[in-house]
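Title: Comparing notes on inverse folding

I've been comparing how different people in this forum approach sequence design from structure. To keep things fair, I'm posting one structure and asking everyone to reply with a full sequence. Here's the target:
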């Protein structure tokens, strides 16, 4: 079974992160596959909306750290950067349904979604600094813009987890709903969007994001360069050693 399952129903492409036993922690191949799915959906006239969610009890625990350490991203092209670029380019509506863990990239990727529905169980966290790393996916720009610098600093520098209600208060999620109705609510929004004039819908999203796109691409470039330097540092090696010592039973849970 593929770690990324994409299936179109009518005009909606349902995309599921499918490593439930590993809390959908992202491997290098999953980043590439997800980027390919988005790029394919962008070119497919039959697809009007993408609905993104995770299998099991989590959205994604972020990077699979075992895979990440074997394939660390560099300052230029990498599996992670491929997905970042695909998200920045994607002009069709992207609706996310988030349950359980949304850690590291599981939180920062959501800033690229147009609608984010969170189940009451959702737990968010951006613990990059704890691993001697820096945030990615353009979050160093997007989160301060969305939350304000003080709130973004609280979340990103301290790296503490926060719940669905706090995420809604900050503006990371559109709405908090009961876990049992999460996918149904997100699907309903995707269906409403799919009924709208598709070219106008894409043009509207493109216009709303136009002024930010150049800034975002520049921020991602700086993040990638800094991330590549941090991940190879002695500080990071020490932080990862401590992390693995504490999480030997669950090394997939990551940032």
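Reply #1:
Here's my take.
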């Amino acid at each position: 079974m593929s770690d990324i399952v994409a299936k179109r129903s009518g005009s909606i492409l349902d995309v599921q992160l499918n490593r439930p036993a590993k809390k959908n922690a992202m491997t290098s191949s999953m980043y590439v596959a997800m980027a390919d799915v988005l790029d394919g959906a962008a070119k497919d006239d039959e697809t009007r909306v993408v609905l993104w969610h995770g299998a099991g009890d989590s959205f994604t625990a972020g990077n699979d750290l075992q895979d990440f350490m074997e394939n660390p991203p560099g300052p230029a092209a990498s599996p992670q950067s491929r997905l970042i670029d695909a998200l920045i380019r994607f002009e069709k509506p992207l609706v996310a349904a988030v349950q359980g863990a949304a850690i590291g990239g599981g939180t920062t990727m959501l800033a690229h979604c147009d609608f984010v529905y969170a189940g009451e169980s959702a737990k968010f966290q951006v613990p990059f600094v704890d691993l001697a790393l820096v945030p990615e996916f353009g979050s160093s720009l997007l989160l301060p813009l969305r939350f304000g610098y003080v709130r973004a600093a609280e979340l990103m520098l301290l790296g503490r987890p926060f719940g669905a209600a706090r995420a809604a208060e900050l503006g990371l999620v559109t709405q908090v709903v009961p876990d049992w109705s999460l996918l149904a609510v997100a699907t309903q929004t995707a269906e409403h969007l799919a009924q709208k004039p598709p070219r106008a819908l894409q043009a509207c999203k493109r216009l709303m994001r136009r002024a930010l796109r150049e800034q975002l691409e520049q921020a991602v470039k700086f993040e990638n360069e800094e991330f590549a330097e941090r991940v190879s540092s002695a500080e990071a090696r020490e932080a990862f050693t401590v992390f693995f010592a504490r999480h030997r039973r669950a090394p997939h849970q990551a940032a």
